[in-house]
Amino acid sequence: MTSPSHSPRGTSLNELAGVLAELSPRVVGDGGVRVFGVRQDSRRVGPGELFVARKGATTSGAEYALAAAEKGAAALLVERGEPLPAARLPLIEVTNVKRALALSAEAVYGNPSRSVEVVGVTGTNGKTTTTFLIEQGLRGVGERAARLGTLGFEMEGHVFGDTLTTPEADDIARCLLEVQQRGGRYLVMEVSSIAVVQERVSGLRFRAAAFTNLTQDHLDFHGSLEAYAEAKAALFTRLAPELSVLHVGDAFGRELSRRVHSGRLTVARQEADVRVAEASLGASGIRAKLITPQGDCSIDSALVGEHNLENLLVALGVLVGLGMAPPDAGRALSVAPQVPGRLERCDGPEDDVLVAVDYAHTPDALGRVLAAVRALGAGRVLCVFGCGGDRDASKRPLMGEAVGRGADHAYVTSDNPRSEAPADIVAAILPGLGAASARYDVELDRALAIEKAVLEASPGDVVLIAGKGHEDYQVVGREKRHFDDREQARRALALRRAR
After folding, report:
1. What are phi and psi of 206, to 5 degrees?
2. Which of the residues 44, 119, 367, 485 has an alpha carbon 20 to 30 A from that of 51?
3. Residue ranges matching CATH 3.40.1390.10 in the chain
């Protein structure tokens, strides 16, 4: 992640205490000390910065304060009730340090979300594609826009680095400052439910926010689907964007539309503000005539599948809601390029099978993408997939069932096993495949599973390699090893051609 220059003026602790008034701040030491940046990672603290001493899973933030002081931190932000750091630095004590981090970062970096228009996209599936489409649509009409999310932080072709789906609050503020300094007008960002709960976006002013859909995911973090849904809803109900674009094709989207009144724009196939007049979906893409409150438009996109029609509808709703003329928005979306790792083709004109890589890693996403690839070839659909370790285990049999119902043959393999044994993860997937009476093979070596699927495919078959998409690594234990499904697919295709 890039690190733009510090706030030139800086902010005193007394001034910051005013910003944090809702959190009952108490300044200890010299309140006149000025800070010029905010960091929650002690390894990255620089001279003159405020170190936010957050509690970890097994550690207190105070344990890292000495390291931050040695790197030049000017002051500390700590949570009341936590052990006070031994570092002899002035500090602010607050009741909620996570929220304070977000509010402090926005303030110290000069409130960049007040000058850069922030567009947030949330939902179980489709965040990355929809964010990509909105950013490309804005750029297509000459606006200067950046994108932040699963694919990293990028502005006008310049990639600054990989990030979490939604980075920490201090990183978001620095991204916004970078966009501002480069003359950008928009930052389009993915907003995960976890980020909302952890207050990472609480300091931001959202010009617009969009909802794609809600299906099961992240129950390991949220505990229940209801809590997960409420985290999604909070982006609209608590953070109050000026424009809320809501896909009402599922029950939660419809419920959310009843809770949001100001600046609401609904999208769906039918019975919505932005809707489909007619659409043709096939192997060559999506052709559709769409209706908006500001007029009709046409889209001719190379994206495939019903799920991408929904993503296009949400993106169109945002663009039109931001004031773009519908015909201009339709033209810009029509020429948006392929989203990396989202039904990304790996085969060439010389190949007799179609091989695509996709990031789908939830039951709903797998079902949707399998339905989409069914239209791409005349033969069978073969699917290589696994489930991530140390994540929501309850969805594993559901993913197996989704693949069992959507594919003709499955190759069950390792994804990012993390600390779990791949064989244990696969064992949790198999009951779902059994429930669907599916044909499958188990091959724990992901490279061999991809090779086997490609070599065993018949001419005209489609091979879908699901779960990792654009990722170029595999997490085994605590080690992040280079591994790219696209590279492995092309290698397997070369072996197939050489037979």
Report:
1. -95, 120
2. 119
3. 11-108
